[in-house]
Design brief:
The protein is of the alpha/beta class and about 350 residues long. It is about 40% helix and about 10% strand. The protein contains 14 helices and ten strands. Strands 1-2-3-4-10 form a five-stranded mixed sheet. Strands 7-6-5-8-9 form a five-stranded parallel sheet, with helices on both faces.
Length: about 350
């Protein structure tokens, strides 16, 4: 605590990115909160997945008595989706009263994604030019729903027959055969068509090499590969994680349904329609570019300073990147509403 206090005293602003959310070390997180409040330093607490939404076996069952996630109203609490913001508002209504709750969506570094080397990367992966490379950028976890992604690839292979080889590419490097894998994942790898395992040093190369990006998770706090793939000019088959419903509704993305392989196959075969979808998504996903975060960041810093000084934080905010709790919580059809998820017809 002495070292943490010294760091805090040297700082004009402190950002706790998921440190106040993950249940791995609640005593440490609460100690940080105690120091920050005592020293009066403006603080932003950024929350990804609170324990009541998704619990890893590593942490055990969610325990609200632990004090996590942090939720003191004198600190600014930033969630990465409207669903989580609504959950916080229902559990900790004082955050609404103080203006200390807001959603800021993840951003995408567009420049980082646009110079990928498709030919070289596919050659390094031993993927032929004519192969359909289906990219699944994910870790190994049950909530990532790897069997659904593999099944999509298997169905696509049946549709193509001998005309085209389908390759399933999972990027997580721990997917090795000398490790103990959950049985359902190991069984999926055993039948995955043209299995490719491993990542690339640059994400731009990863997306450039792919023909289709899938994210079949049942839960994601945001699902970063979805807008990244769109900015990189790739079609996306994703879902059914609930936050995707919110993002599709708010940004009007056109996302293919991985649980409807026939529709995915037909879309991939319709060159003109595919080009329209890719162009549409790129134009809307580019609004999440990191360069657009400057103005929201100014708002966040000012709000954190106000809260630290006993004033009201964020009163209202609405943009492509930011939603204030006062605007969206409880509004029918608002960005935190789980309804109205539309797929590419």
């Amino acid at each position: 605590m002495a070292a943490a206090r010294e760091l805090v005293r040297q700082s004009d602003l402190v950002v706790l990115d998921n440190l106040g959310t993950l249940p791995s070390a609640p005593d440490a997180a609460l100690s940080w909160q105690e120091i920050l409040l005592q020293e009066g330093v403006p603080t932003i607490v950024r929350h990804h997945d609170p324990g009541w939404q998704i619990v890893s076996g590593m942490w055990g069952a969610y325990d609200p008595a632990s004090g996590l996630p942090l939720h003191h109203p004198r600190m600014l609490h930033v969630t990465i989706n409207g669903i989580t913001m609504r959950d916080f508002a229902q559990r900790y209504p004082k955050l609404l009263e103080s203006g200390s709750l807001v959603t800021v969506y993840n951003t995408v570094d567009g420049q980082e994604l646009l110079d990928g080397d498709r030919a070289r990367t596919r050659a390094e992966l031993n993927v032929a030019d004519e192969d359909l490379l289906v990219l699944h950028p994910t870790m190994l976890a049950k909530r990532k729903n790897i069997p659904a992604a593999v099944e999509l690839c298997r169905r696509l292979q049946r549709f193509y027959g001998e005309l085209r080889r389908v390759r399933y590419w999972i990027t997580h490097t721990s997917a090795k055969w000398d490790q103990s894998l959950p049985s359902e994942i190991e069984e999926s790898f055993a039948v995955a068509p043209g299995l490719v395992v491993g990542s690339t040093p640059r994400r731009s190369d990863m997306y450039a090499a792919a023909d289709l990006v899938v994210l079949t998770s049942i839960w994601e706090g945001f699902g970063q590969p979805v807008p990244e793939a769109m900015v990189a000019g790739k079609p996306v088959a994703a879902g059914p994680y609930p936050v995707l419903e919110e993002l599709v509704d708010r940004h009007r993305w056109k996302v293919l349904d991985p649980l409807d392989p026939e529709a995915v196959f037909e879309t991939l075969g319709d060159v003109e329609r595919l080009r329209e979808i890719v162009s549409w998504n790129r134009g809307r996903a580019e609004k999440l570019d990191t360069s657009n975060l400057v103005s929201p960041m100014r708002t966040l810093v000012r709000a954190a300073e106000d809260l630290a000084n006993g004033r009201t934080g964020i009163r209202a905010a609405d943009s492509d990147l930011m939603i204030s709790a006062t605007r969206s919580v409880g509004e029918e059809g608002g960005p935190a509403d789980r309804s109205g998820f539309s797929r590419v017809p």
